[in-house]
DNA sequence: ATGGTAGCTGCGCTA
């Protein structure tokens, strides 16, 4: 029996993506939606839209860049976004319908040496935050492809900050905090979650839903890539 | 071969 549906989605602007978010709600009726790259300050977040669909909100926005949110059919308690002392809005956690949930937007890390360093620190901070907790569900854009199976064209990505040994080790620290990658490859390398708008045949799996002490089934909603004005990421859904 | 697109912003930055 399914008792909870959780979707994570890097929408690349929540306001531009509202029509597709509305379709997601109509098709899947998720209990929880974890958003990344909302790209707007809290005062401009489309609260009325979500509330009219009977959702509660916990938002952590920022002008132009980043921005994360937890959208839930249930009240959201113990909301926190101070994972570290950064001014970048990349993290939010809350407790809803009996579960700790997290929406995380890990830095890409290709902007500068500092950004790359911060990517490692950010992954370490997530691992530290949840290491001792009994149960949690983290959805997000981790900007890490863990293996060649997560890459449509591995040779094109050699040396990329999305798949260096260092960032893979950083991501491994999160797994080592007793999180499971719920993903199962069904029929080959076909479960990518992101494509650069300029390179439509070089997909990567960099969006994950990780859980500890919660079992469920993961599904990548590929058809959201073929719609009008798609995000560069597709939604990933976890059914408990 | 080092381009290309998208979003937000304001003629550049980030991905």
Automatic annotation (TrEMBL):
* Binding positions for Mg(2+) per the UniProt entry: 10, 37, 141, 143, 232-233
Q: Which domain of life is it from?
A: Bacteria
Give the UniProt record's GO annotations in the biological process aspect: DNA repair
Keywords from the named record: Hydrolase, Magnesium, Manganese, Metal-binding
Q: Which PROSITE patterns match?
A: AP_NUCLEASE_F1_1, AP_NUCLEASE_F1_4
Ranges where the Endonuclease/exonuclease/phosphatase domain occurs: 7-233
List the catalytic residues.
105, 141, 233
Q: Needs which cofactor?
A: Mg(2+); Mn(2+)
Annotated Gene Ontology MF terms? Answer: DNA binding; double-stranded DNA 3'-5' DNA exonuclease activity; endonuclease activity; metal ion binding
Record site feature (Transition state stabilizer), residues? 143
Q: Which parts of the sequence are marked as the site Important for catalytic activity?
A: 207
Instruction: Site Interaction with DNA substrate: list residues.
Output: 233
- CC cofactor note: Probably binds two magnesium or manganese ions per subunit.
Similarity comment text for this entry = Belongs to the DNA repair enzymes AP/ExoA family.
Q: What is this protein called?
A: Exodeoxyribonuclease III
Q: Which organism is it from?
A: Candidatus Cytomitobacter indipagum
């Amino acid at each position: 029996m399914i008792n909870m549906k959780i979707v994570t989605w890097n929408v690349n602007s929540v306001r531009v993506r509202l029509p597709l978010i509305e379709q997601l709600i109509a098709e899947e009726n998720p209990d929880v939606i974890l958003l990344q790259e909302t790209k707007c300050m809290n005062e401009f977040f489309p609260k009325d839209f979500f509330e009219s669909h009977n959702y509660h909100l916990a938002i952590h926005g920022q002008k132009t860049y980043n921005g994360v949110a937890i959208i839930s059919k249930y009240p959201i308690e113990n909301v926190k976004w101070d994972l570290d002392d950064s001014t970048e809005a990349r993290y939010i956690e809350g407790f809803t319908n009996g579960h700790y949930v997290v929406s995380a937007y890990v830095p890409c890390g290709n902007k500068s040496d500092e950004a790359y360093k911060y990517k490692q620190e950010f992954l370490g901070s997530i691992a530290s935050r949840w290491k001792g907790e009994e149960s949690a569900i983290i959805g997000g854009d981790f900007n890490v492809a863990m293996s060649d199976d997560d890459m449509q064209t591995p040779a094109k990505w050699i040396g990329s900050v999305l798949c260096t040994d260092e960032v893979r080790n950083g991501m491994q620290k999160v797994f080592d905090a007793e999180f499971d990658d719920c993903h199962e490859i069904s029929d080959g390398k076909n479960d990518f979650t992101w494509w650069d708008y300029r390179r439509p045949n070089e997909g990567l799996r960099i969006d994950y839903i990780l859980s500890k002490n919660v079992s469920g089934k993961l599904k990548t909603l590929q058809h959201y890539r073929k719609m009008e004005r798609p995000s560069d990421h597709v939604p990933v859904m976890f059914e408990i």
